[in-house]
Please model this.
Amino acid sequence: MGRTRPDRSPRPGRPPRLDRRQFVQLAGAGGAALAASACGRGDRGEPAAKPAAEPARPATDRPIVRVASVPTAVEGNVLPTLIADFEHQTRYRVELTTTPQLYQLARAGKVDLLISHYGHRDAEAFVLDGLGEWPRTIFSNQMALVGPPGDPAGVRDLRDAGEAMRAIARTRSPFVLNDLDGVHYLTEILWHAAGCPDRTGWFLDLRASGQEAIDRASQLGAYSLWGLTPFLRLRAAKPLQLEPLVLADPLLHRMLVSIIAKPGAGNDVNTGGALALQSHLLAPATQARIRTIRYPGADAATWVPAGRHNRTAILPRA
Model:
C-alpha cells in the first residue's frame, strides 16, 4: 500500500486524466511565474511592482518531485539549470536521477516525471501500457557533422546537411559511418538527400559506433556524425583531430520529451508536482532560457526549444 504525501489526496479507482484546465492552472504555480519574473510589464512603461517574497521553506518541508532523465539532458547542464530555476520559484524540491534505464525505475513506481528522447526504446511501451501520460516535447539536443580541421570537402557552417554530404561525396573525402541506430538512420537520410552518390572508396562502414567510430574518423581524417555533447565530452578527455562543422540543419536536432507517470497500484506518484514542473519547462521564459544554455567548450547553441511542437491547447499562457 503506497504512502500518501501531504500535498495531494489519494485517488481511488481510475487514474485521473490531465486536462487543459489542470495544466494551465498548474502553470501558474511553476512556468508562468518564470515568464512573469523575466518580462514583467507595468502601465505607461513603468516596471511592474515585485510581489512580496514568500518566506523560504525548510528543505524537509517541501514536497518532492522525483525526476529521472537520460544522461544527455543532464551532462550538458540544461536540465539541472532549469530544475534549479523551478525550485527557486516554487514550493517543490526535485530529486534528479540520471540513467538510461529510467523507464525501469518508473515501472517500479520510483519516478514522477521522465525526460528522455522521443525515440527512447522504452518510451512507447511505457505510454501504451497505460503507465504514462502523452509525451510533451521540451527541447532537442544537437547532432553534429564533425570533420577534420582542414575541411577538405568545404562543408564548414553549411546549413544543409544533405548538401554537406553531397560535397563530401563529390570530393571523395572519407566519411566513417557511426553505426548507432539513430545515427545510422540519419546518415541514410543525408545520403539520399545528397542524391544517392556511389559510396565506393569514400564511405567507410567499419562496423564501429559511438566513441570507436569517432576515434577511427579522427585517425583517418574523416567526417562522421555524432551527438554534439558526447563529442565535446570525448574531445575534452582525449585529443581528436575533428571539429563540429555542420550544426544548423534541423535534421540534426533530436527531440526530448517529458512524460508524467500515472498513479497505479502501490505507486504514490506526485502528479501535481510533475505537472507543475512540466508546465515550468514549457513556459515561454523557460523555452527562451534553454536557447542560452551552452555546453562547456561550445560556442553554438547546444539545445533547441521544442515546446511549440505540442498542440496549442496544452501550452501555458502568461
User: Anything to note?
Assistant: Strands lie at 64-69, 93-98, 113-117, 136-147, 175-176, 203-204, 224-227, 243-246, 253-260, 303-305. Residues 153 and 171 are 6 Å apart (CA to CA).
